[in-house]
Amino acid sequence: MIERELPTPADTEHLGRLLADTLPPRAVVLLDGELGAGKTTLARALLHRLGTTGPVRSPTYTLVERYATAAGEVAHLDLYRIADPEELLYLGLDDLAENARLWLVEWPERGRGALPAADLRLRLEHAGQGRRATLEGLSEAGRGWLRDLSVTATHP
């Protein structure tokens, strides 16, 4: 587990870029945190680092945004408006599971049982004027990602 203080939005963006730089071949990331905690800020920085050039919006209303990047397809899901995990059946998750290299899932608890197994849980929470990130590896790939992230963060 890694905990990191993020005093400014720029620090949250930096963490997103570090995650992109150490991205494993395939990964599912659960993004936990209340509204305004910085989940979309982090996702935007990660996607831009992977080569997305257009705008990166929170998929609150579309539920899923898909991005073609140099590293492969990324799916950004926001399940805030999902009332029942069965609703996810209509989002084409089978196609995503086949094609997406990376899943970024906001409000993952609302999709419990319908999402693929997660590799990393990233919790963002308010901490004074800034944020605190807690990253937990949930699979061997996720734990390896955290090891790579730790090495990269200490050797810029």
Describe the main β-sheet briefly: 7 strands, mixed
Number of helices: 4
What is the CATH superfamily label? Answer: P-loop containing nucleotide triphosphate hydrolases
Label the CATH architecture. Answer: 3-Layer(aba) Sandwich
Quick one: how many beta strands?
7
> How far apart, in Å, are the first and last alpha carbons?
20 Å
Uncertain segments are none
Strand content: 25-35%
Mean pLDDT: 84
- Give the ordered list of helices and strands: EHEHEEHEEEH
CATH topology, by name, is Rossmann fold
Q: Gyration radius, to the nearest Å?
A: 14 Å
**CATH C-level name:** Alpha Beta
> What is the number of domains?
1
Sequence of strands across the biggest β-sheet: 1-7-6-2-5-4-3
Categorize the overall geometry: globular
- What is the share of helical residues? 25-40%
Given helix and strand content, the structural type is alpha/beta
